[in-house]
Amino acid sequence: MTKLPSWHGRFFEDFAVGEIYQHALGRTVTQTDNSWFTLLTQNTAPLHFDHHYAAQTEFGKPLINSTFTLALVTGQSVSDISQNVMANLGWDEVRLPNPLFEGDTVYSRSEVLEVRESASRPHVGIVTVRTTGYNQDGTPVISFRRTVMIYRRGQGPSIPTVQLHPPTG
């Protein structure tokens, strides 16, 4: 049997300006996701959790909480962008060009905009990406620039490995 290595994300040396990563996982957003996240974060805007109220707006139904959208699309990018993050430095230019609704499925992709050395930390580098989230129809629902400090290969915490033993009789 051949043992293949698991994917542990990109390190600083693996990024190049202009690369585009289509993130692997999509996620259908549910009413429960929206209500729980909205209430968990103490967002009292009824547009997110009161169907009667939302029916009276131009959208005619609840909108997904925009900070949930930001968190979800950021999360979708982790395996490609920040699996080996030392620190997030910021989210800039967050734009929500179209609404996201309960039942929509979100997909995302990121483009590498800048890759540079860290002036103060030689064990990491700084990567800036533009990430776009879009719905099942390809309509963009969010975009943002994100800047992260990424460990150089062999410079961050080690990934724990578990020694598996063969089953016994």
What does this entry show, briefly?
Pfam families: MC_hydratase. With 169 residues, this protein is of the alpha+beta class. The chain is built from three helices and six strands, in the order E-E-H-H-H-E-E-E-E.
Question: Can you put this structure into words, describing what you see?
Answer:
With 169 residues, the chain is α+β, with helices and mostly antiparallel strands. It has one domain: Hotdog Thioesterase (Thiol Ester Dehydrase, Chain A). The model has no long low-confidence stretch (mean pLDDT 92). Strands 1, 2, 3, 4, 5 and 6 form a six-stranded antiparallel β-sheet that branches. The protein is built from three helices and six strands. The protein is globular.
The number of helical elements comes to 3
List unreliable stretches of 5+ residues.
none
CATH 4th-level superfamily = Hotdog Thioesterase
Mean of all residue-level pLDDT scores: 92
Morphology: globular
CATH topology: Thiol Ester Dehydrase, Chain A
Look at the structure and give the CATH class.
Answer: Alpha Beta
SS class: alpha+beta
Strand tally: 6
N-to-C span: 20 Å
Percentage of residues assigned to helices: 10-25%
Please give the largest β-sheet.
Answer: 6 strands, antiparallel
Order of helices and strands: EEHHHEEEE
Number of domains: 1
Architecture per CATH nomenclature, i.e. the level-2 architecture: Roll
Any idea what the radius of gyration is? 19 Å
Proportion of residues in β-strands: 25-35%
